[in-house]
Amino acid sequence: MRELYQLLYKYNNFDTPDKITRLESYFHDINKTTPFIEVEPINKLEEEIQVKEEVKEEVKEEVKKEVKVSDKKIESKNKNMFEPKQKDSIFWCVFMYVYGYGEYSMVGSKYGNRELEEKQKMILFFKENPKALKTTNHKITNGNIQEIYSEYLSVQNETTLLGVIGLAVFYNIRILLVDSLKNTYFDYHTNETTKTCVLFKNTGIRGQIKYTFDMSMTDEKIQMIQQIMLCLEHYTKPLRAISTYSVSELEEISKKLGLYDKILNNKIKKQELYNKITEYCGPF
């Protein structure tokens, strides 16, 4: 009452019954509803709060499910793919394939020393077996062999396409470098090769090329690569000379690469089709 007196009726004392009746409009009557105030029932508010809490819990559960599903997708996508942390992904993918993950993990931070040590063994082997590097399906010159030696004398950002020949010979394995985006691949092997190491080319955000090694590769998968992809002829060029192809052969190649258009190829000349395929393949 004191507050009401101070705020609304400053000059009234409300000290007699007749004066108190002046406040009758502010009295609370349990049989009447206050016209200017709408009060939500307590039980209704509690119900709404409960519903909101249940919705929050449902959202949390859905988020958890999405995270779990996402984790499974990532795991299923990458669990069989090995990507080395070192810059020279070709060398370290091959190293892991030959020696296993246990040996690779033991290298640790001394990977530079181990890489040079391994390459020195290669150079020594090639010098003791001067004809070994010429036994692959990629013809090279004596000058190319010297280039390989020079490359192996230092730690590289990436093994070159020429340098892969040395890896295939020294470890006596077949190496496939696969570009899934262009549907092409390189094949490095000797006549005595028995095992196949398949590396997949990947291009990062800044255009940096990295290779990954598929640890689940099977003979069936390798056959599929050979059937649906174009095997590039040589590390220096994608195709043989144009005279060695017929128009129908070039058309089949264009189909593998996804370049074939029936209407277009009815009008295009052999040389144009050859150039188009060569340009598409470009540098690997």
Question: Could you list some keywords that capture this structure?
Answer:
12 helices; 6-stranded mixed β-sheet; 6 strands; flat; 10% strand; 3 domains; alpha/beta; 284 residues
Q: Can you offer a commentary on this structure?
A:
The chain has 284 residues and is α/β, with parallel strands linked by helices. The radius of gyration is 38 Å and the shape is flat. Helix 10 packs parallel to helix 12 (270-281). A hairpin with a 4-residue loop joins strand 2 and strand 3 (184-188). It contains twelve helices and six strands. It has three domains: 1-65, no CATH class; 82-231, no CATH class; 242-281, no CATH class. It has helices spanning 2-7, 17-20, 42-78, 89-99, 101-107, 111-128, 142-152, 163-170, 219-228, 247-256, 262-267, 270-281, and strands spanning 81-82, 174-179, 184-188, 196-203, 209-214, 230-231. A six-stranded mixed β-sheet has the order 1-5-4-2-3-6, with helices on both faces.
| Radius of gyration over all CA atoms, rounded | 38 Å
Strand order, sheet with most strands: 1-5-4-2-3-6
Percent of sequence in beta strands = 5-15%
- Head-to-tail CA distance between termini: 91 Å
| Uncertain residue ranges | 4-10, 33-42, 59-77
- What order do the helices and strands follow? HHHEHHHHHEEEEHEHHH
Described by the principal axes of the CA atoms, the overall outline is flat
Tell me the helix content: 40-55%
Strand count, sense and barrel status of the largest sheet are:
6 strands, mixed
How many DSSP H or I helices?
12
